[in-house]
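Technical note accompanying the year-one report. For the benefit of new consortium partners, we illustrate the data format agreed upon in the data management plan: each record pairs a sequence with a structure-token string. No post-processing was applied to the example shown here.
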Amino acid sequence: MSDTAEALLGRIDLEDLRRRLDAALRTVRRLRYGGRVLLAKGDRTFVGEELLAGLSDDERDALFQQIGGYTDLAGRLLPRRRWELTCSNPGSMAFCSWGFGSFVLGDRGYFFEEPDFDTLGETPYRLLGAWEPADSEAAYEAAWVEVHVAWWQELWLPPERGSMADGPKHLLLRALERILGGDEGWARAIRWSLQDLEYLELDDLIEWTSDESLPREAVETVLRAAAEGKLAEGVPARLRRRILREAYLATW
């Protein structure tokens, strides 16, 4: 990397970035022990653009000639950056992946969109939400769920169908509980998945869901009913609830 690029990177002020991002957030939940959950006020704040706010257009161009665009910029500068939820369509001829990630600045963690590479130039890491304090697992989990529920339709997150989704199962389950609601919603989601995914067969889903704690007979009864848009009768409600959720998560 040239001295010019190093000098331009050195001018990017992460404290200024933090102030810019914080101004674009609103508190949506206060936790009992003092933590907070925040969501973006709108959909037009992009972490990639805010990182470069102090550089002129010519300086941005000069920097991007030396590094790999927004991806390299974020990788170099955003502390503790990681993927949180990755969605993909590996069976498609035009493979793509998308989801959301996070990073930490000071005492606050931030969630941002991880767009497919082909659209990264249009939406360079859109700000989605945040949590504080950054080292609070409870605040992080509450904010993860809140971000998913707030953005799932726009970002095409579960229950919108890609083909695969990889993320923390317990948090995805909490988010889907709020989106899908009761057993009827989960049964509909299973039916849609069986209709929409060419590779997904009912018999396979029954096999994947059955285990020592979820007897095959009950699993088959519940899922065959769900495939017809119905709720199974004769299966205890608590067991039916578990089967529907485990089966739907298995489709991802």
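Partners are asked to follow this layout when depositing records. The CA atoms of residues 110 and 130 lie 4 Å apart.
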